[in-house]
Write a structure and sequence with these properties.
mainly beta; YaeB-like fold; globular; TrmO-like_N
Length: about 240
Amino acid sequence: MQPVAVVRSAFKEKFGIPRQPGLANSIVSTIELLPEFSSADAVRGLEQCSHIWLVFVFSECVDKGWSPLVRPPRLGGNKKLGVFATRSPFRPNPVGLSPVKLEAVRIEGNKVSLDVRGADLLDGTPILDIKPYLPYSDVISDAEFSVADQIKKLDLPVVYSDAALEICRQYTERTGEKLDEQISEILSCDPRPAYKKKDPDRVYGVKLHNLDIRWKITDNQIYIESIAYLESSAKP
């Protein structure tokens, strides 16, 4: 198989990406079709879809190997399940599947791209295939999986230091990105490793867009300590 497209995403590293699709819908990603597949004919009719499936490669895990048993973060990192009973990226064939909301099909000369919401994909992720989401068959109303029967999010206020709040305001004003909403969606999913959640003073970092966001989670709040531009990037 060969990739047909590549993802352009706000997520610049694996840490902090929501572990499932549809949990950060305020972030728009772009699927850029590669030149040999970038044809208006190839996406004809796709604009009629509200959602699409993305079949992709866990490119950062290709050479990391796999194990028959994994420790899903949802189970606190203490219990093991078979790899085929999880969505671990460390698989015999590191392939993933995500449903995303299709915002726009853009055709500019010989360049074709798709704007999508809810993608849980690292910037640069190779896309193997794009398929329409079919509501009459892809929604299984009586489906069950007791291990993950509902979304678990932190119900905590997001509090900013004065300096972080000012950078957030400036960034939103310059780019139009709803940065505070994006930060809230990402951190309410609690990306911390399970075995480190008992340390409320530990400060973590997430790279989003061209920003380095430093934060910690206590019993009563998500605290944004600082927001700084990455050294390799310029201010918008």
